[in-house]
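Backbone-to-sequence.
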């Protein structure tokens, strides 16, 4: 208790009441969902677990939450006839001490194990051990109904709230996070592709070496491609790409898989490369001098100009949304969770309490994932700026100055030699084999051996047979006698 004045000074509202919807917390101290190992069969709390929760309430905690409680499958307790009675006893135990009691409906999603994994896709997570069942539209509707039924049962038991588990890569997160990732990438990538189409339309070439110095003639496209490009690079805190990328980094890093660290490092390296080549693209297209191709176009009377409104307005809107949604990124994905909660409340009358305060780092961001995102962006963008925007270092001279970078450049320039491998493996090698078959089998074995050889063998045989046909009867009798004598000698021996 001696430490209470210091705690109160750091958190002045810690011991003050808080009203959320129709419920009032006596203070701001909350026991989050966890399992101490006292749960009974079918996820029904034992008396020992109820005593454990009551001890927390007796100690002054304002609200106690259960651990995860399955809404689907044979382990779900919500359909049991004694659910309301058992969970009602737990709620009464909390209420005796002025504390609230919440239950946490949950589905493991891809982490349900063999036969229990349901998910939006058949992708196996790093912590999964089986290919999940891909949910159909009717099964998604069924799952929503099961969550609604769970909420009704919780309300009948006398508990004070429903806390839907929407984190840790379980089923709810697999829908909402994937949706956020899809929408964020759809915005800035669609914007970049449409802006690239404007560049091709204006310049008449798809090669970046035919561009350069276009930021003065195409100011709007330049600005919008910067905005969308920053989204692709994952510029910190202001783009949707950053929050989406950070979520991926955190999911991999926290997965607990033995492959988590290697995959995490590969993901970070990929982010560095993405930031570098995006900055390189913007530098080569909009900075520096006009290319010889542009100079030739202008000399022929083709004026370089901004794309028409019908082209730049659509990708401009998407670029602005990339930055706008990115600047509220800490709450954007959570907003999807809130939408789901509102759907449950409006459709089934289930009130989903949302967190109103958090002492976690930047609202729960993983500091390692955040640091990796910042380092990846800074490294890739910094190198791209030095070589292609600031042009402080000539990339050609830099690459040729070191055998390592020269070799890497050759590897990338030749597309990892995949084209050469495919060409040699599926074009040159089959042609070489076909020529060998033609030369050594068809020409030698068939043409020479079969055709010419067979012809000569037949001719020689004919000459041998012809030599035995003299037309002299004494010769035939001599040969007949010699043959007869040979047979008799064999029989006698």
């Amino acid at each position: 208790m001696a430490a209470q004045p210091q705690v109160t000074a750091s958190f002045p509202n810690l011991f003050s009441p808080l009203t959320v919807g129709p419920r009032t917390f006596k203070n701001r101290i909350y026991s989050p969902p966890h399992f101490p190992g006292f749960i009974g069969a079918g996820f029904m709390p034992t008396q020992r677990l109820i005593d454990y929760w009551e001890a927390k309430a007796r100690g002054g905690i304002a609200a106690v939450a259960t651990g995860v409680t399955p809404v689907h499958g044979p382990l779900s307790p919500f359909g049991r006839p004694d659910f309301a009675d058992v969970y009602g006893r737990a709620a009464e135990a909390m209420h005796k001490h002025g504390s609230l009691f919440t239950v946490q409906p949950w589905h493991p999603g891809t982490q349900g194990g063999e036969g229990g994994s349901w998910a939006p896709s058949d992708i196996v997570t790093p912590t999964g051990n089986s290919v999940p069942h891909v949910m159909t539209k009717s099964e998604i509707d069924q799952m929503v109904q099961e969550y609604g039924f769970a909420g009704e049962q919780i309300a009948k038991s006398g508990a004070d709230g429903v806390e839907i588990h929407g984190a840790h890569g379980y089923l709810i997160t697999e829908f909402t996070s994937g949706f956020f990732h899809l929408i964020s990438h759809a915005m800035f990538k669609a914007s970049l592709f449409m802006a690239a189409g404007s560049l091709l339309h204006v310049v008449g070439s798809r090669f970046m070496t035919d561009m350069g110095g276009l930021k003065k003639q195409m100011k709007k496209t330049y600005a919008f491609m910067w905005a969308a490009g920053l989204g692709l690079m994952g510029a910190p805190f202001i783009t949707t790409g950053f929050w989406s990328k950070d979520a991926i980094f955190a999911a991999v890093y926290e997965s607990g898989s033995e492959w988590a660290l290697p995959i995490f490092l590969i993901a970070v390296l990929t982010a560095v490369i993405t930031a570098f080549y995006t900055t390189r693209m913007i530098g080569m297209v909009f900075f520096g001098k006009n290319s010889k191709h542009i100079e030739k176009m202008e000399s022929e009377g083709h004026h370089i100009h901004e794309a028409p409104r019908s082209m730049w307005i659509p990708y401009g809107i998407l670029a602005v949304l990339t930055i706008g949604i990115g600047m509220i990124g800490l709450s954007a994905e959570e907003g999807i969770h809130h939408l789901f909660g509102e759907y449950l409340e409006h459709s089934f009358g289930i009130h989903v309490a949302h967190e109103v305060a958090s002492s976690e780092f930047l609202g729960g961001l993983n500091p390692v994932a955040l640091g990796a995102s910042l380092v990846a962006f800074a490294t890739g963008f910094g190198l791209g700026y030095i070589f292609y925007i600031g042009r402080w270092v000539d990339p050609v001279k830099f690459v040729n100055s070191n055998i390592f970078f020269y070799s890497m450049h050759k590897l990338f320039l030749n597309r990892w030699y995949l084209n050469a491998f495919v060409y040699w493996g599926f074009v040159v090698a089959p042609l070489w084999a076909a020529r060998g078959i033609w030369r050594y089998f068809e020409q030698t074995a068939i043409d020479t051996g079969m055709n010419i050889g067979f012809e000569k063998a037949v001719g020689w045989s004919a000459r041998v047979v012809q030599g035995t046909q003299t037309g002299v009867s004494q010769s035939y009798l001599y040969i007949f006698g010699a043959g007869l004598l040979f047979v008799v000698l064999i029989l006698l021996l």
